[in-house]
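Final report, closing paragraph on structural work. Over the funding period we assembled a curated collection of sequence-structure pairs, and we close with a single example.
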Amino acid sequence: MKIKARNSVRVRSKGKAVIASGSPVIDQHELEKEVLELRLLASSDTGSAIKSRASGVFSAGVVVMLLLLMAQTLYLYRDQAVEIGFIASAFKSLGYTPPQIRHPEMIGLTNRVFTDIERQKGLYRLQLGLMNHASHRQPFPLIEVSLTDTKGVIQARNQFHARDYLPASEVRSQMAPDEEHAISFVMKSSATDASGFILDFF
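Its predicted structure, as stored:
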């Protein structure tokens, strides 16, 4: 069976047969050049996509790092943070009441006077000057007073909440930093020879 090629001419040149068809002739060098350009273009697009993804990952990492830094800073300075107006407002708007920060070890005495009450055996009056040395406001402390005799032996122990030594209008108030508060209360003891006291703040 013979198959004839359409629109083709067989030409012999120097002993070789060359078939010239009616289709346009493609130069091999130009073809290779176009392929190379396409590869370079594809490589450039791929590189741009990789750079874009890397840039996005880097930006997300920076944002996460900043958020972690802010959270750490807020934690380290949480005592002062609750005193910042907009943070307190944010907590309030979320329906969250931040816990009151207590540092009773930062409360010091500026004055103390211990006397017995005349003609009333077993009753003693204690006057104290309290100062908050913390950098933030804090509630008035629970005060525990232990009465001792001349030998230092505890004869009686009394506890006083803020409502016991503050006016009713100030019971819910807090101690501001470096602010002095004068308080006074009466204690009762079955011992009649109390000559000293021990204070503990909670």
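Residues 1-21 have pLDDT under 50 and may be disordered. The radius of gyration is 45 Å. We thank the funder for supporting this effort.
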